[in-house]
Specification:
Number of helices: 2
Strand content: 5-15%
Structural class: alpha+beta
Largest sheet: 3 strands, antiparallel
Shape: globular
Distance between the termini: 11 Å
Order of helices and strands: HEEEH
Length: 76
């Protein structure tokens, strides 16, 4: 598997701009880049769905999620 972060996978640079989750007026949660107002929800959802499909081919018994990204310059 590719060790890059999801934000890089959807085309954000390194270092990436700040992104945050926001609740829309309809009540859904959106992924937004505050500096531009760009909504990244669709791109991240598409990436996530593809990544899950790829991972399921390996018949995993678990998946580790990290709260924070690794420090700059870190490699797997």
């Amino acid at each position: 598997m590719d060790p890059r972060c999801p934000e890089v996978e959807i085309g954000l640079g390194v270092p990436r701009p700040t992104i945050r989750r926001e609740r829309s007026p309809e009540g859904s949660v959106r992924l937004v880049m505050p500096s531009s107002g760009e909504d990244l929800t669709r791109r991240m959802n598409e990436f996530s769905e593809e990544r899950v499909e790829r991972l399921l081919r390996f018949d995993p018994c678990g998946y580790i999620l990290k709260k924070t990204p690794p420090p700059a310059g870190w490699s797997a």
